[in-house]
Amino acid sequence: MKKLTESIRNELKYKNYLQVSNLCKSLGGADIKMMTITENVELCLNYYDHLTLKSRLPANEKHIIKYGIDTMKKLELARETKKAKKDTRARLKEQFHKEVGIETRFRTHLMVNAHKKAMVITSRVHPGETQSSYALEGMLKFLLSDCKEARQLRRQFIFYVVPMLNPDGVIHGNHRTDLLGFDMNRRWSDPSPWIHPTMYAMRNFVSLIQDERKIEVFCDIHGHFQPCGGFMYCNTYDKE
After folding, report:
1. Does position 110 have pLDDT exceeding 70, yes or no?
2. Considering Cα of 181, then 226, then 234, then 231, what sign does the dihedral take?
3. pTM
4. Residues 26, 191 contacting (CB under 8 angstroms)
5. Does the domain made of 2-38+117-221 have the CATH classification 3.40.630.10?
6. Which is it for the CA torsion 173, 177, 178, 184, positive or negative?
7. In this structure, are strands 215-221 and 31-37 parallel, antiparallel, or unpaired?
8. What are the boundaries of each domain within the chain?
9. Do 1 and 133 touch, CB atoms closer than 8 A?
């Protein structure tokens, strides 16, 4: 998976819709890579950009978010033509390239990508479940492909993909646990930033994205030792 991540990162043909960044460091010091896949990906903020923005403008962050979303709502209410919307977004992107501050970048991102929902995809929280990496590899190849369905998905969604949540366990040959013997999949509810840095960063990042837009899907890919084929364990919701 590391070789795949590096090869994808270095492909120039993906530069318009793929961004690879570091989410955090694992307990053993390994880089936890995160891929952002969407159209206009150059406007998207990575985890450290979000943290910088939050620390720099703790009181005004919500105002910036509200400004971006309200501006797009006004555009929708004005019922602009597709060409007018395209011209507006082009002008905003041109402004972004002139002013590269995080605040300007974030505001432009909110306006240009306001219509998109988010999808978060993670894998290999259990190191021994190698099937999940094969499944994710196929998913990545599809999302980065030039087929009509993939292009449409990149226009409508922002995909945040973390291919390997537990590289320490993979490196040391553990089946389900990290360096300290913890099952990281049981640490989502209250992770420690010192003992479970990967889960803490992932949970915190998802919270930051939720402040910005709706997360349509959170998909954590596993492998099973008994059932064959693909299947899902899903949350249930009331019809309301």
Report:
1. yes
2. positive
3. 0.82
4. no
5. yes
6. positive
7. unpaired
8. 2-38+117-221, 61-115
9. yes
